[in-house]
Amino acid sequence: MKQNPLSFQLNLSPEDFLPATEEEKQSQVIMRESVSFWKDGMRRLVKNKVAMVSLIVIILVMIFSFIVPMFYPYSYKEQFKGANHLAPMEYSEAEQERIAAGEKVFPHIFGTDKMGRDYAIRVMMGSRISLVVGLIATAIILVIGSVYGSIAAFFGGKVDLIMMRIVDIIYTIPDILLIVLLSFALKAPLNALKNEPGFGWVGIVGQNLISIFIVFALLYWVGMSRMVRSQILTLKESEFVTAARAMGVSNGKIIRRHLLTNCIGILIVTTTLQIPSSIFTESFLSFLGMGVAVPLPSLGSLASDALNGFNTYPYLLFVPAGLISLIILSFNLLGDGLRDAFDPKLKH
Amino acid sequence: MSEYLVDIKNERLSFFTPAGEVKALNDVSIHMREGEVLGIVGESGSGKSVTAYSLMGLTAHPGKLIDGSLYFNGHQIETMSDKEMRKIRGNEVSIIFQDPMTSLNPVYTIGNQIMEAVFLHTDKNRAQAKERARELLELVGINEPEKRLRQYPHELSGGMRQRVMIAIALACEPKLLIADEPTTALDVTIQAQILELMMELKDKLGMAIIMITHDLGVVASMCERIAVMYAGKIVEYGTADDIFYSPKHEYTKGLIRSIPKLDTKEHERLVPIEGTPVDMLNPPAGCPFAPRCDSCMKICLREMPPVTHFGRVHYTQCWLNQKEEMEAKQEKGAANE
Amino acid sequence: MLKYVAKRVILGIVTIWAVATLTFFLMNMVPGGPFLSEKAISPQATAALEAKYGLDKPLMQRYVTYMTDALHGDFGDSLKQRGRTVMSIIKMKFPVSARVGGISVLVALCLGVPLGCMAALKRGKFLDSLISVVSTCGIAVPSFVVCTLLMYVLGVNLKLLPTMGLRSWQHYIMPVIALSFYPTAYIMRLMRSSMLDVLGQDYMRTAKAKGVSGFWILFKHAMRNAILPVVTYVGPMLAYTVTGSFVVEKIFVIPGLGGEFIGAIGGRDYTLIMGTTIFLATLIIIMNVIVDIIYKIVDPRIKLK
After folding, report:
1. CB contact under 8 A, B278 and A29
2. Residue A33 maps to a domain
3. Burial A62-88 (b: 16+ CB within 10 A, else e)
4. B91 has pLDDT over 80
5. Is the pLDDT of residue B334 over 80?
6. For the residues C151-163, what does the mean pLDDT come to?
């Protein structure tokens, strides 16, 4: 028998061959800390540069549209005489006189619009409205869609058939038609409502915007509900649900504890991807003239207003259009990042 | 050139994951002669499949061969281009995967998928290829082959699909068949049938087989040589008799203790191996099995154990064996004095 | 198969009926009417017009009359465009929208599918990043922005392309780019993710182990499995696109069905709204049945129930 030469290179003492204590053994076990689903996902998300940059952009846009206007010297509805269609950083004659008199005048960073309103603050308010629409509409969609979808999937059979048939019907009606009809139909009741005490905000927000929310609540949850349904149909067949049922867990608890928690990852992702699509739809409606009420701007209405004088004042379109695209892009990229981080199916 | 059909020397292979380098194979050497049946045994993640896949040039992204040489049937695998590899795959070496449910393409008929393998490596025409596919289905014991050729994978049972997988693997009469846990996903009764079929085919066609499994029962009945792998290393290698009747490595002993036997006395319990496999991202400095080993010594935690040979074939990597060997030597020396 | 198609057709008819009913009542419940906005008309004239089109009758009666006529293929006359039937308007406008829309969908498929595949194959490489960035930007830019930019750069500034109408093939270029912009980007993303999914499947490993070359792995083994989500998306999308996009038709002055529909809604042209809605619903349902059949052909596992 020949000895491995390696053992000669090591200085082996008899002590080395004494049994190791339990502590010594344990100290060698460098276990990877057990990471929960969320921690693991977060770690992956933080490492995803694109998603992180998108998140920062979203936060910046939020600061830009919610906090900056509070300190901004102009108001979105304030019209300056003789300051129509100022180019970016240009001052009106009145303002130039004031500057000459030694006064400090805050510049119109993006110029002014055709009514002589400061464009920068209008863009800020516009993106505020667009974000609010996106977030609220998505919240509505999320709640209705996931509840509807999970009920249909969970009960299956006839209930599922009828519920999904309804989804098909809603899916088949042209959405523009419903939006227009609804905004007409809601005009009278909402006008009545805004005169009631405590509902003054209805007038400011505009009945169109409220109609948009109602339309989202009525129409756009179908996609979400289909997704949740198919997700739950798969989960329903899984063993842990059978086990829970065998133990006599109630239906409601199974839906809440087992089914919804298991598709929460994909829900978050779909929600993040739904936000840009809601903003998209709002901007499209504003383009059709069915968005927010004047003088309140949204990015969509700003862009569509700018279309008329586009050849002379292209920057009036570029600013809001660029901002819409940026917001939608960041939410999409963040959503992709979330999916890569949290969708267990995509782990390779 | 080599006298062996398969000659893997000191293979090191790592997966470069975002979390860090996972050393999947650590100095693995394997050689096989033609017609030999080798069993590779180990728990999940021990590197069994990675070894076999690397021999076919199928190492999955982000895996990379770091060191060592892979020789198969006159080819130096690690130097070959993908195009050259394709000529060998499915032709001189084929593989059967674990899960027959997902290993067949769901949108093509069985016939199409078998004939594809025939077309790729022979210049048979359609009719000949079809005839060959029919023949192969008969060979693997599928009845009504004509009808089966036109069926889709989802229309067949798991055992049938695994037979189809074997038929595809044997389409070009390979020199080596790699079976990656071919029976794990099947019912026990079907398992026995598939293993029997493989042995029968081996006798008929004379190919070598690498049987990857975590089931010692499977290797005991089939394999001439057995490699026991743990954490990317071959910890013990020997003939079936060596491994089952005189296991030397503590891990192998543990594995054998954990097999249920028919002759156990009523109150005797199965002895599981305590603890969990090592984290391959942070492997310990010494023997990877040390933290789970009952006879662990201080040296085991510090240094990798060297190879100890027992006879021509049988070897282990364990400090305990080294210690015994050194003691035997000392005694011998003392006796000589 | 035939039984399935028959079943789907019956179900489709029920859906169309439900959509028509819903639209009919919703439309009529909304205050206002087709002749109210025209201030020049005296109340007597309005009443006379309403009587002529049967709008003075009770709602239920009108509903029954409309549905009976519709069943016989008579969708009535347009309320606003005197002397033209709804059918003749659809017949005139639909082909225009369909041509632009059809070309756009084709362009979207021809660009989206191969580019999406390429991105998946080169996962993590430069090409993948480039395609991902382009496609994500593609779904982030609203169509009216795309239209205006095209118009501004190609039409007005460079004067390369005509900006209005559809008289020659050059006229098609800008509307087609504008219309296919979003679907191309969407199909690219869809194709990329489903291709990545398929590439990770066990049967791809089997194909590789057989020695199949990269080209055939892609075209024979991966493509057929990966194309399914695209089929699902393209079906209804085709129905919507061929019926015309209001934005594109407005900006490029194309006399298509999309613009007509928005006009009808604005003017409360009840019969035209109904006709167009039913037409669109029918198209969507037909497309869905076709998608299901293609599904069955592509993936034999799917059972048509």
Report:
1. yes
2. no
3. eebbeeebeebebebeeebeebebbee
4. yes
5. no
6. 78
Q: Answer whether residue A123 shows pLDDT above 70.
A: yes
- Tell whether A254 and A335 lie within a shared domain: yes
Domains held by chain A: number: 2
Q: Give dist(CA A119, CA A305) in Å, integer.
A: 12
Tokens of B280: 């391959």
Using a CB–CB cutoff of 8 Å, tell me whether A176 touches chain C.
yes
Residue A119 near residue A319, CB atoms below 8 Å: yes
The mean of the pLDDT values for chain C is 84
For chain B, strand residue ranges (E) read 6-17, 20-32, 37-41, 63-72, 75-76, 93-96, 176-180, 208-213, 225-230, 233-239, 307-310, 314-317
| pLDDT tens column, A261-291 | 777 777 777 787 788 888 878 877 777 777 6
In total, chain B counts a number of residues equal to 337
Which pLDDT score, from 0 to 100, does residue B238 have?
Answer: 92
Tokens of A281: 């739809």
**Same-domain pairing of A227 and A302:** yes
Q: Cα separation of B90 and A245, whole Å?
A: 47
Task: Please tell me whether residues A101 and A231 are part of one structural domain.
Answer: no
Name the residue among B91, B94, B105 with its Cβ closest to that of C221: B105
> Could you tell me which residue, A277 or B277, shows the higher pLDDT?
A277
CA distance C100 to C174: 10
A176:C262 CB<8 A: yes
Tell me, what's the pLDDT at C174? Answer: 87
Quick one: A103 and A226 in the same domain? no
C31-40 pLDDT, tens digit per residue, is: 766 776 555 6
pLDDT at B133: 93
Q: Quick check: B140 pLDDT over 70?
A: yes
Cα–Cα distance, A224 to A146 (Å, whole number): 7
Specify the amino acid at residue A295. Answer: P
**What does the alpha-carbon distance between residue B152 and residue B162 come to, in Å, rounded to a whole number?**
14
Residue A219: which domain range?
A: 44-78+117-346
- A30·B18 Cβ contact <8 A: no
Chain C residues closer than 8 Å to A303 by CB: 142, 144-145
Total beta-carbon pairs less than 8 A apart between chain A and chain B: 64
How far apart are the C-alpha atoms of B170 and B73, rounded to whole Å? 17
Alpha-carbon dihedral C78, C84, C87, C90, rounded to 10 degrees: -90
Tokens of C274: 């109904």
Same domain, A201 and A68: yes
